[in-house]
Amino acid sequence: MLPGLLLGATAIAGPAITALMTLALCHDAAIVPVLIAIALVVPASLALGLLWANDIGRLNAIVREAVDGSGTDRTEGASVPWLGPIQAIALDIERLARATAARSALVERLRRADAAIVERLPDPLIVLGADHAVLRANTSARAVYGAEMPALLRHPGLRGAIDRAFADAADQATDLVLPVPVPREVHATVLFLDPPLADGGQAIVVLSDRTRERAVERMRADFVANASHELRTPLASLIGFIDTLRGPAAEDRPAQERFLGIMAEQAARMNLLIDDLLSLSRIELTEHQPPSDRVELAALLPRIAAGFEPRLAARRITLVVEIATGLPQIAGDADQLAQVMQNLLDNALKYGRDGGTIRLLAARAPAGGRWPARPGVLVGVADQGAGIAKQHLPRLTERFYRVDAGRSRAIGGTGLGLAIVKHIVNRHRGQLLIESEEGVGTTVSFWLPER
Ligand SMILES: Nc1ncnc2c1ncn2[C@@H]1O[C@H](COP(=O)(O)OP(=O)(O)O)[C@@H](O)[C@H]1O
Ligand SMILES: [Mg+2]
To answer: Which of 88, 246, 384, 436 could anchor a disulfide with 388, C-beta 3.0 to 4.6 Å?
Structure first.
């Protein structure tokens, strides 16, 4: 304060005193008035210097407060009228400080909002800084990739996309195949952020797992190829026989009879295949909607079983039907459940042992064990056929999957029966289980909820 005061006073009084002294020394003025003038100038300049130093001190304090953000409200009433400009500067600085504090609060809010959005988005996201290093990863990325994140970011495909995004300041996308720990197909998008996020995030890597989608795409493509192939075989045979009947066999009556028989069989096979394909697509359309009708299994099962009597007799197979008394009604679609029973009994007959026994059982599901704990009904079809090797069991409900395609075709199978069963059971929110022991037989069971 003191050096400021002296400096201010000297600046004000210095030139005046120098001028007065010069006048006195050159005898242009009388010494007494000069001394009086000097005596007046000194206290006046000291007073002015004091006021300046005081205000500059206050200005200094305000600036310091503004710098460390602890600005307090000051009122303009405290101003000294003849020092207006300094007071005005002080007030402007205060306003500036308040505006800066508000802006940094806003930036902080935005930074937190950025972080919260990234954190809560359902896709795995990784935020990279300007140096390409990971700034943070959201919950989903941590859950899905966790410890493999560094390895993932070293993947040459992803590395390349990140480098290109930074080099071109533009978004990039790439498909990655991750072999471990389980094979996955991931679509990665690198979003270059200009301007960057409030925390300096310069790019976001979005990872979407496409494994399921790709599998579905492949399944659809396989399905179309399989269906066309299944239809083409009997069609080719029909075309061949038509040519033969028109040409070489035109006059051969016995050959014509034989060929027409085969043609009828092939046409029937195509018919069966188309029926199954149509059923499958109809069931798929309603699969998301559980049935609401009430079905009395105790009445439905024996009716379906009775329809198999001629075929059972031809193979000398005994069908034992055991339906527990007091079987509850279930919520179901009677036509679809009839189709399930048709397909299961058909398989038990086709792949069962001549002269053997097929058992059809229905009862309330036992509590606990392998079936859901809710009340439900269990239906099973057990045969004494050759059984199915273990490695085939998980795939039997895939469309067109057959253990022995040639044998299945020869006995009128389409390879769609169990796929249809699976879809119907799914629609009923039930569960399907196929158990088999080679040389002993196969049991296919399904559980349906009571309501
Ligand atoms: N009860 C069974 N015993 C032995 N194998 C069976 C039995 N049920 C199904 N399979 C096997 O599962 C395959 C698929 O069955 P399915 O979908 O009904 O087709 P399809 O009977 O038309 O061949 C059959 O080809 C057969 O290899
Ligand atoms: Mg079948």
So the answer is: 436
Who surrounds ion ligand 2 at CB < 5 A?
Answer: 347, 417
Distance 283 CA to ligand 2 centre (A): 17
- Which one of 3.30.420.10, 1.20.140.150, 1.20.1540.10, 1.10.287.130 gives the CATH number of domain 215-286? 1.10.287.130
**Any ligand 1 atom below 6 A from CB of 408:** yes
User: Distance between CA atoms of 338 and 357, rounded to whole angstroms?
Assistant: 21
Distance CA 224, CA 220 (A): 6
Q: Is the pTM of the predicted complex or chain greater than 0.85?
A: no
Q: Give per-residue pLDDT as tens, 22-43.
A: 888 887 777 888 888 888 888 8
CA–CA separation, 435 vs 433, rounded Å?
6
Q: Which tokens in the block code for residue 102?
A: 């508000």
What are the pLDDT digits (tens) for 120-174? 999 999 999 999 999 999 999 999 888 888 889 999 999 999 999 999 999 999 9
